[in-house]
Amino acid sequence: MKLDRYDKHILEIIQQRGKLSNQELAEAINLSPSPCLRRVKQLEESGLIEGYVTILNARKLGLTLICFMQISMDKHTPDRFSHFEAKIAEFSEVLECHLVTGQSADYLLKVIVKDMDDFQQFLLNKLTPIEGVSGVHSSFVLKSPINTTALPISN
Q1: Can you tell me whether residue 31 is helix, strand or coil?
Q2: pLDDT score of 143 more than 70
Q3: pLDDT digits (tens, 9 = 90+) for 96-132
Q4: How far apart are CA 59 and CA 143, in angstroms?
């Protein structure tokens, strides 16, 4: 799908302020509501817009500890990786899971929990019992000066 300036502007705005009405979005991009709605529908149907979410305040929910975990696997086989990925998908503490290269680890996880006690429970009772996990290296977030979900939209 070829994006024009209106499409790009729509994508930029809804990433920042997703709870806009079609009328508000149309006003923000200087387009009438009907063509604006058509464009949004086309962006959804093309798969560029995959869905809509609400971003919650983790601290207000008591989730104050973010950890990046490097996970090493004992075997590098499709079955071993599939099993790990299926198990890790069951854990709500895991915000992101990436199969990576260029490091000693096979996976990089972003995990959020209430505190160090919850982290210990997650590590010992959920993560390390997964068959194939041979090593875990954890790094805890002290500060997040940049934390966004918005993708850069080229002009």
Answers
A1: coil
A2: yes
A3: 999 999 889 999 999 999 999 999 999 999 999 999 9
A4: 13
Residue ranges of the chain that CATH labels 3.30.70.920: 59-140
Mark out the alpha helices in 29-91 (DSSP H runs).
33-46, 78-88
One-letter amino acid identity for 42? Q
Q: Name residue, tokens 């010992």.
A: 124
The CATH code belonging to domain 5-46 is 1.10.10.10
Greatest alpha-carbon pair distance for the chain in Å reads 58
User: How many Cα atoms within 13 Å fall on the side-chain side of residue 82?
Assistant: 3
Non-local CB neighbours of 4 within 8 Å, separated by 6+ positions:
none
What is the C-alpha separation between 16 and 106, in angstroms, rounded? 33
> CA–CA separation, 116 vs 122, rounded Å?
10
Q: Considering the domain 59-140 in this protein, what is its CATH number?
A: 3.30.70.920
Look up residue 152 and give its DSSP letter.
P
Report residue 31: phi and psi, to 5°: -140, 150
| Kind and range of the H or E run holding 94 | strand 94-99
Q: What is the CA radius of gyration of the chain?
A: 20
Domain(s) of CATH 1.10.10.10: residues in the chain: 5-46
